[in-house]
TrEMBL record:
Protein name (Swiss-Prot/TrEMBL): Paf1/RNA polymerase II complex, RTF1 component (Involved in regulation of TATA box-binding protein)
Coiled-coil stretches: none
Domain of life: Eukaryota
Gene source species: Pseudoloma neurophilia
Chain intervals for the UniProt region annotation (Disordered): 1-21, 285-308
Stretches assigned to the Plus3 domain: 75-182
Molecular function as annotated in GO: DNA binding
Pfam families per UniProt: Plus-3
Comp. bias regions, Polar residues: 298-308
Amino acid sequence: MKIDKHSLFEDSEDEKKLNQLPETEKEKILYERHLKLQKLKEKKEMDQKFKEIKSLPEKQELKQETKKKIENFENFTYDEFNSILLKRNELVNNIYRPCFNECVGKFIRIRFETVYAIREILSIEEGKIYEIMNNQGRKAKTNKYIKVKKGTNTTENMSLNQISNSNLEHIEFDYFKRKIPNFPIKKIKIKTEKFRELLNKKIDSFEKNKINEERQRHNEMPYQRIWEKVKLIKQQEEAFKKGDKITYVKLHNQITKMDEEEIDPEEEKERVIWEKINQKNKQIDFERGMIRKKSGSPEYSSSKRQRG
């Protein structure tokens, strides 16, 4: 969602005043203004549609369809909607349980930089191990990330730390309700309640063992991972000497997966950005050099003599 920030200032004085505020406070004010403008715009569009409908010949089907849209638009409240949003603590406290992946298809309030948004959990992905903390301040580690929609056609794997523990603001609720008036609240509510029932279910000995295995796997010391990787490399070398292609490929995949888990997604993203910037700068320098060469500029001739 692209926001034209210049259209959100009342005048130059207002812009100057907001620019003096801390960045997070400024972004929050502009975001709230954007939501209000969006709300007014959508109300205007809806009023226009009603005018168009009134101007058409009165048909029973059209009247029924309009009535249905209005009913759907008003069929859930702020409290009802808040009740279907999973909180960070709910997920963090149950991160090692086998039923955790059942959170797919449920909804959360998640932070993108300084802006919160309502998103559906599309899937659970694995990546580099990172630290999470529950509401009691107890720390744990996991390699699980939640995949959510970021834009119209893009998705992003987010850490559990980005999920909100608070209720959404009323202005966010109004915006969401107008944006998706036909949101299937009853269907999602049933799914969310079933998931919460799983979380509240008494843990048996089998699940307890699974939880301990999962916890141990993610909280192992770094040297243990290094030792495990060294063993896999040695086994891979032995498989190569014996000509055991199947075992070699299997071990190669295990080593590759371990390497991928050690990559920080944020660092990798930053590395790619800097690579693009460096490549662009090299291209600009090359093009400038070619222009100077063709024009026979003194600067180019001088640098050429110095290199000679």
